[in-house]
Design a protein that fits this description.
This protein is an alpha/beta fold and 357 residues long. Helices cover 36% and strands 16% of the residues. The protein has 2 domains: 104 residues, Enolase-like, N-terminal domain (Enolase-like, domain 1), CATH 3.30.390; 230 residues, Enolase-like C-terminal domain (TIM Barrel, Alpha-Beta Barrel). The strands form 5 sheets. A 7-stranded parallel beta sheet has the order 6-7-8-9-10-11-12. The chain has a two-stranded antiparallel sheet with strand order 1-2. A two-stranded antiparallel ribbon has the order 3-4. It is globular. Bound molecules: 2-succinylbenzoate and magnesium ion. Magnesium ion binds next to loops.
Length: 357
Amino acid sequence: MTLNNPFATSFGTVTDKDFFIIEVLNKEGLRGYGESVAFSSPWYTEETIETNIHMIVDFLIPLLHKHQLTHPDDITSLFSTIRGNNMAKSSIESALWDLYTKEKDLPLYKIIGGEKRHIDVGISLGIEKNTNVLLQRIEDYLSQGYRRVKLKVKRDHDISVLEDVRKHFPTIPLMVDANSAYTLDDLEHLKQFDEFNLMMREQPLAHDDIIDHAELQANITTPICLDESIHSLADVRQAIRLGSCEIINIKPGRVGGISEAKRIHDYCLDKRIHVWCGGMLEAGVGRAHNIALATLAGFTLPGDIAGSSHYWENDIIYPEVVVKDGQIEVSDEPGIGHQINEEQMEKFTVLKREFYF
Ligand code: OSB
Ligand code: MG
């Protein structure tokens, strides 16, 4: 599907997004849906669409064939014999959560213990060539009510952008995401970000680091938020213990699914660590899972969960996700609370594979 707004990060630009949907059917004909959030190339993590398909077909489905599952929470440990590949795991796990909650005839958000009926959302804006374009886009999203603005930054495209943005918007809730663009050699440069009253700075250093982040955090006042570095609750525990960050961006795809995302949420709530739900430019299925997750009480900060129309001309779900006054109203329908738009799905489908149990 082609993005309405091509998305540029410190690594490159996403214009078209390939992805796949897992559909699980039970004997009664109920269907659950999950979305892989892997990209076509391994710029964000090592996973890709193709590696996901390989993992699912050759390892994860055979595991499911061998074991009888009783609850979606059991999937994390069932899949733990396969190392990593969390996005592949999550696409199946989240589909089974949707099916399980539809079988119970209850919304996913209620079954996982969510409370909020409305969730706060922010907008994540890619790198723009021209600051005036960026300022205009910020203005647009603020006027639609989005509750905070996240800017992508990279070397040579950071301090001057922040100066311009703060000149025009001195008090808006603002944060930056570097997608690992810096190293500790940039420490003196990185200290300058503290002047802009940012809510947080997301993943400034290497995608697989928590040690250097701890050193950086000790030298700056703005909270660090980890994204790429966090793949599990174990990673969160270590990062918190080391002081590598003060905030966690939770993405179900990156941590292997809804269950692990909830475990991280529960741990952080207990430790009074703020969390929020990140995004992966999902289509409607993945977005609906993120919305359900973000209803949990510990999601205290606005998520990267924009409305369908920010991403797509036509989403693959109905109703589409709508943002009103910076909030999304959570559906009370069973499962993920949105139906599949079969016509849209069909239009974008290039390959289907079926597996029998
Ligand atoms: O780093 O949070 C990120 C999109 C794709 C991959 C990584 C990231 C992002 C975003 C956009 O920031 C979030 C969204 O609007 O889905
Ligand atoms: Mg990020």
